[in-house]
Amino acid sequence: MELANLDWNSLGFGYLDTDYNVRCYYKDGAWGPLEVTDKKTLDVHMAATCLHYGQECFEGMKAFRGKDGRIRIFRLLAGAERMQTSCHGILMPVMPVELFKEAVKLCVKKNERFIPPYESEASLYIRPLMIGTSSQVGVKPAKEYTFVVFVMPVGPYFKEGMVPTPMVIMRGYDRAAPLGTGKFKVGGNYAASLMSGELAHKAGYSAAIYLDAKEKKYIDECGPANFFGIRDNTYITPKSESILPSITNRSLQALAEKMGLKVECRPVPEDELATFEEAAACGTAAVISPISRIDDPVRGVSYTYTTDGTVGPWCRKLYDELCAIRKGEVPDPFGWNEIIE
Ligand SMILES: *Cc1c(COP(=O)(O)O)cnc(C)c1O
Asked: Which residue's alpha carbon is nearest to atom 5 within ligand 1?
């Protein structure tokens, strides 16, 4: 197999064509066989529920070419399980875990020449999604669904290495209601977050931070990423019914514990931001995005973590360890990698 002719070191995070995608159709109460195609478009009925009532959910994962040349998908099982939870949440049929895993592995294998070389900082991003496709104008779940998984090579989130960035608390916006769909990975939450995200970016921030929608007192999430703070050898991350359970966050908690940190998952009041030694966002795209400063313009307060671009020691350590596991440079004590033979 010859690698695709790409400049691996200048990849960003944008859509790129690869050779194949894998599809699976749900009809008459059952999932059909996996289909491999090179078609990039979907032919969807204009009255499909995904277009009108937001019946759509997705996942995001990465595959890596290891030091030993083997291909590893990081936390494939966790992604399969989370997609089932999302499907339950918006009345879509769940896809059996084994079928999901088979579809993802097949798609990665079929596009093997797009998996970046070990020496590059790039990886293969995997995007599974599911949509309701049957025509339905009354507000009801669809009877038919399409599952698609496509992949694309992406560059490192931070091209020049980790850089702390400022974030802003957007008190004028919520991304999810307290008992709403915030805990599911559905497109609707993203539609609800676009305006605040755009305003935050325009004002020079890397992301909007959302407070809990009910009391506006606790930290929920940082844009499309979870939040954590470090204080007194403790990893502290919000517990809330309206945040998306980040698999990266769960992985970091396990690593933190293994490194001897205490882990606390509980409501985090905004005032506690003043006490953290390090603060960061976490998710598949960047693993860890350290935060330099958090502004709360409405209250006229700022919480500063670094002013000279220094990355905190725990952020660095956790980041290095998680990245090393993904690329097979160190043992994988939790069995997180799915190796493709
Ligand atoms: C996907 C996502 C995350 C990060 O989850 P990971 O599994 O770590 O990639 C965090 N918040 C939201 C809203 C998300 O959609």
From this structure: 246
